[in-house]
Amino acid sequence: MLDSWTSDAPAKLFGVSDIGVTPRQLKVSRGTSDKVFRGFILAGALFSLIVLALISGFLMYRGFGIFKDFGFSFFTSSKWEAAADDGSAPAHFGVAAMLVGSFVVSVIAVAIAVPFAMAVSLFLEYYAPYSLRYVLTTILDLVASIPSVIWGIWGYTILMPHAVGWSKTLNHWLGWFPLFDVPAPIFERSPFIAGMLLAMMILPIVTSVAREVYSQAPRDQIDAAYGLGSSKWGAMRTVVLPFGKSGLIGGTMLGLGRALGETVAVYLVLNLVFKVNFHILASVGGNVASLIASRFGEASPYELKALMAAGLVLFFMTLIVNFIATTIVNRSKVPS
Amino acid sequence: MNAIATEVTPVTPRKPWKNTRATLKTATINGFFSAVLATALYTFTGLDGILGWYVSFIISVMVVMAIVSKVTGNGKSIADQVAPVVISAGFATVMIPWISLIGTVVQRGVKGIYTGFFTHDMLVNSMDEPLNVGGISHAIIGTLIIVGIATIIAAPLGIIAALYIVEINGKAARFVRFLTQAMSGVPSIVAGLFIYSTVIITVTHKNNAFAGSLALAILMLPTVARTSEEVLKVVPREIRDASYALGATQVRTTLRVVLPTVRSGLITATILGVARVAGETAPLLLTSQYFVRFTTNMFNSTMASLPTYVFGALRTGTENSLARAWSASLVLIAIVVFLSVIARLLGGRSTGRK
Fold first, then answer.
1. Regarding predicted confidence, which is higher, B47 or A189?
2. From CA A109, how far away is CA A107, in angstroms rounded?
3. How far apart are CA A313 and CA B240, in angstroms?
4. Chain A residues in contact with B344 (beta carbon < 8 A)
5. How far is CA B217 from CA A144, A180, B78, B342, in A?
6. B322 Cα to chain A: minimum distance (Å)
């Protein structure tokens, strides 16, 4: 706040510099108490930097042995086997199947959630009756706070029986396409079902970002579209949607980041199998987060290191996705 | 002065935004034909159940609207007619799982709730026993303790981060905001794994509740920081300037003027943070885990919490344990929704509305 006093903005404003008078520069001198205070606040604010550094540092330190032992095959192999007790078979750890599984499930989630998020945000911003908007927005916010374990139990008991039926229909009509083919006719706990559940869970966050950018669409351009005789949908299509495009992409990436890191819900509705699988209706899948949750309990110290390494991979994956997302979202926002 | 005598005929203002009788009539007729078509679709295709009828009804509405616009030719294209239907139907479809989820949790959860459910723990009862014995008192208190400690750690740090961005607004402000955004993307299981690898492996050598609090604090901090930042931005510049003009230092201005102004907003931010982490399961599975009875031992013992209770009951997998999971879910969802509503009531317009 105080720093703006030192600028020469007032001088420019009054044209003083035009007549050759250099304005006096104000120098802010702070007392000791302010210096201490500012230092304290800065130290507290940098706490998140320390935490992020510690997370990557410690997981790297714990998982380093694994990266050294398996090298690049940790990423390319999908075999996850602890050493046999009698020492006959050595341990082998690779996260390829889980990495692919994470992306398959998250991409399904995003593909389902984004069209609905667009509809919901357009509805809330432009179509819903005024009296309903506040209530509906509040409900959306409350849905966003439903814990993932409850989504998981609901997905397992209520969604899955329905989704198995839809899977069968999809497989019946589109089974010739490899994506919808299944090696064995088991449709429970498939990536498709997990993706659908994740779509419902990430919808609020994608919607909130989309709604924010849609609401910032320039009012005069919308009115201009109406003035030229456009229908409401015409105004949406020519003004609001193009304006909100980059924001929507950012929100989508944010949702992708959430979906990649989701643990308990995926653990409950997805069958963890260490095999790279692109048949989304088959009961074979997994993601890195649910791998950690399911193996953690009975892991040997060596396997625990492998889980730490997997956690590190997940951490960097979500960090990169989130970084891209926030960059896009921040750029798409109109400075206020 | 006499007013000029003129006949004033009262004119009723037109209300072009109101639905006229004609539009209502068209809507009724369209709805009727859509329902007929939907029933036909429902009967002759493989769709079944309420969901099946719903899907066929939406398809029918679109088809009828398209045909009507083609036949009457009222100047609107097919896309103009169908788009509002698609958008409204999209919203309605999204609400189906919400209603189903809340409905199921309430309907199945109520069965297991009796007064003892809130006063007993699971020391002498197993998950599989009938629902009239045992309870979740230990899990409720455990959640309160774990989340409470997490709040004590995370709320001040979150508010300090927000203070740096808004009040100090120094060179690193953008960097700090970027860091909190990056931190909000840390997956919950990674937070748990991190605390496990640092606190539990290195220091305590066994699972304990305090480690769970630390893991939750990591997840809570970004939420508090972001909301507090929004809240602090609303403070008018004039009152800061007034304080400076009276000769106050920045530390006095912040502590005596800015923070008291936004007290309720900061409480809202904290409650939103609590609601964010109260249902977190994955980090607690790795850190505080589960314990069958009530304990206040933060450092030497595992501790039950509602999410891990639900998870444990689910994994037991019998009929009775599943019913327990639903009942505990109902309590958990009630707590989280209650907190969110309180936060919104306190925050009022500044955070709830645009």
1. A189
2. 5
3. 46
4. 138, 141
5. 19, 42, 53, 21
6. 9
ipTM score: 0.87
Query: Rounded to a whole number, what is the distance in Å from the CA of B230 to chain A's nearest CA?
Result: 12
CA distance B347 to chain A (A): 13
Nearest to B250 among A37, A115, A118 (CB): A37
A-B interface: how many C-beta pairs under 8 angstroms?
Answer: 262
List of domains in chain B = 21-110 (no CATH), 137-352 (1.10.3720.10)
DSSP A335: P
Asked if the model's pLDDT at residue A304 lies above 80, the reply is yes
Other beta carbons less than 10 A from residue A305's beta carbon:
21
d(C-alpha B129, C-alpha B323), whole Å: 10
Q: Which residues pair with A285 in a beta bridge?
A: A272
Q: What is the pLDDT of residues B231-275, one digit of tens each?
A: 999 899 999 999 999 989 999 999 999 999 898 889 999 999 999
Burial of B259 (0-12, 13-18, 19+ CB in 10 A): middle
> Is residue A45 situated within a structural domain?
no
Residue A263 forms part of a structural domain: yes
Query: Across the interface, do A150 and B51 touch by the CB < 8 Å criterion?
Result: no
Q: Residue A172's domain spans which residues?
A: 96-332
Q: State whether B249 and A122 contact (CB < 8 Å).
A: no
